[in-house]
Amino acid sequence: MAKVPKKYFEKLVENSLDIVIATDTHGRVIFYNDGAKKSLGYSREKAVGKHVTSFYPDVEEARKVMRAMRADPQGRCVNFETTFVAKNGEHIPVAITGAIICNDRREEIGTIGFAKDIREIRRKDQLATLGEIAIGLSHEINNPLTSIVTNLALVRGRLDDDPAHAGDLAQIDAIQEGVARIQARIDSIEQMARSGTYASREYLRGAQMIDLADRAEEPLASPVAAPGPTLSGLRILVVDDDAAVTASLEELLSREGCRVRTAADGEEAIRRLVEGPWDLVLSDVVMPNMDGYDLFQKVKTLRPDTAVILMTAYYHDQDHIIKRSRLKGLEGSVFKKPINPDHLKKVIARACKRAA
Description:
This protein is of the alpha/beta class. It folds into 3 domains: 16-117, 2-Layer Sandwich (Beta-Lactamase), CATH 3.30.450.20; 122-210, Helix Hairpins (Orthogonal Bundle); 235-355, Rossmann fold (3-Layer(aba) Sandwich). 45% of the residues lie in helices and 21% in strands. The chain has helices at residues 6-14, 34-40, 44-47, 59-70, 119-159, 166-195, 243-255, 266-275, 292-302, 321-327, 341-355; strands at 19-23, 29-32, 76-85, 91-102, 108-117, 200-204, 207-210, 235-239, 259-263, 280-284, 307-311, 332-334. A hairpin with a 5-residue loop joins strand 4 (91-102) and strand 5. Helix 5 (119-159) runs parallel beside helix 7 (243-255), helix 8 packs parallel to helix 9 and helix 9 (292-302) runs parallel beside helix 10.
């Protein structure tokens, strides 16, 4: 095998995209590569001869790296996280793999460090965290919003025909507008999680906040409900692990003339299915013990003529529950909570018509 020239390795290190800095025994820079120039902003002429502590926020931070190398029997540190300061003052998080260099007599003659800029890695970690937060927020906020929206529709239905309650109707409209704003903010977070990008703006001096106000806001439901389909007489089983959701949907559908029972999870729903025939099962997607797909499969086995609608509090069907159910014959789904009551009635009417 041909021997690789030393010059080749020097060029390889010099052109590396990572930051490579070597120092002498006094801590002065004797080697500074192109990756360092690009990340830190100093030219090679300006960097060589500077003390290495010039690239750290303070002397103590530089000493932490040296202590990490001295703590190792071989004088090395691997992926030690610290911070560099660029020429423009920007603080750059880096992971250093470094070593103390010794001569043949095992005398220290300097150090060399290979530092990787980890800003992009941290940004991706932040986006992953944002995605997890979006899922949690959607589930934990959209479920109670479903109860709020449904109950607002019920109250409005009782007050619509009484002119004496015009002021109350105005207050309901204001509440609906507030709920719509909350939902718009949740939608913005979901969009950021899906796209992997987000914008920020200054909140207080020196503090930034994610900008959630750049989406158009639309009301969740029209203040004046249009005449909906007739659901009177339908036998409906509502399944959700959130008691407020099942209670509000039970009242809403009962006022439409439906015969409604509720279940807190899939196992309770199966017991209800055995009790008697049902026209429709309206079930949440994410529940403990049994998810919406498994319940859908059970319904098709126990009551093949019963229609099924799945609903979720999040825009993303992470486990493909709805997709897998559709492949098995599911035709009804509501992909967003809070659910527009008028839209829900239409979906129920269509699903029951197809089942019939």
